[in-house]
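HUMAN: Ready with one sample?

ASSISTANT:
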Amino acid sequence: MRRIATLFAAVATSLVAMAVAPSDAFAQSSRWAKAADPDRARAEAAAAEAEREMIKATNMSRAFDDLLTPSTAYSMKARITLMEAGASQSRYPELRLLLARAEQHLGHYAEAALLYEGIVRDPSVSIVRRADVWAVLGIVYAQLKRIPEEIEAEETALALEPTVADRSVILSNQAEAFMGIGDVSRALATAQASRASRASR
């Protein structure tokens, strides 16, 4: 039970962190850039609409502390917008990331994992963003009970960017993953690292 609560808290934290700032590729888009690249303009419009819906969904989930709330309607609306924009095959990783977030929030973990996996392997995505996505991918793997892959994803996140997301939460999740596969010594060491990280903040 504690692991599920930790995972839900981490999901909320990660979704909020990704939702706060506009996507890197679209942040500086000008009127002239949109006119020169209509495909980019359509992608930007879809991203903006989906972003608004995902922020509503995330805020409502935090208010109700339950993923099975009316917030799923916002996530579904975001998903529909993104699917209509061809987000799953988009050349813009920002659209794929938004779709992955929507799928994750709706409980479509296998679909979310595939999208996140594509993003972390995309060389156009910054190292810092990839680190954040690796951390969220670890949560999705845990939801899918793919524990070895969860541990590997969390290791990658921490290696890419030592200050990624909430380090203590990632380490705590990883400690429980080690315990789940019976590796008690690594579970204890990782739990201790999590406490140390939390104390140093």
About this structure: The two ends are 26 Å apart (CA to CA).
